[in-house]
């Protein structure tokens, strides 16, 4: 029985396309924003695999320098600081506030589960106007084990005193969904534009194109 909904934050709830113009101004192309985010994830995951932990903010800074070097340019500290700080004020996707409000009105517990460091996560959700719908905001940084390692998902179960199978992750990242399912949780995949599930990973039982559709499916399946 599902008792807790754990929401990924970046891209799942918050719209990173708001960074397209700043990245176009820095590098001449909005496509560099997606390249930066992918590079940041790679650095974070490598840190976890090799046992040399890298927090999300440090990875974001390093990834900016790598993108600049790839483009044959360089960034000063002020440019890096300003760009990384923009992550704190991302807007929610248009349907997110209403869909979260509907889910928050159910008996299910709501938690934001993110790889962002705690203070950044709190500020992101406050600035997006959605912090109030969550019972807790949990950062994998507190464990020094970022998703998709099992520890963050299991920490949610522990925090709410439920079994892992009572937790459902909601995410727009295939790797996040795989991590939750491998940890024994349920998952729902939010198929944002360009997001696809792994053809070799476990399959979630809920897939939807936006959070309103996903909320309908979660309410029908998980709310008693």
From TrEMBL:
Domain of life of the organism encoding this protein: Bacteria
Keyword terms: Hydrolase
SUPFAM superfamilies: HAD-like
Ion transport is among the record's keywords: no
Classification via InterPro entries: 2-HAD, HAD-like_sf, HAD-SF_hydro_IA, HAD_sf, PGP-like_dom2, S-2-haloacid_dehalogenase
CDD domains: HAD_L2-DEX
Gene3D superfamilies: HAD superfamily/HAD-like (3.40.50.1000), Putative phosphatase, domain 2 (1.10.150.240)
Family affiliation: Belongs to the HAD-like hydrolase superfamily. S-2-haloalkanoic acid dehalogenase family.
Xref: PANTHER family: HALOACID DEHALOGENASE, TYPE II (AFU_ORTHOLOGUE AFUA_2G07750)-RELATED (PTHR43316:SF3), HYDROLASE, HALOACID DELAHOGENASE-RELATED (PTHR43316)
Protein's name according to its UniProt entry: Haloacid dehalogenase type II
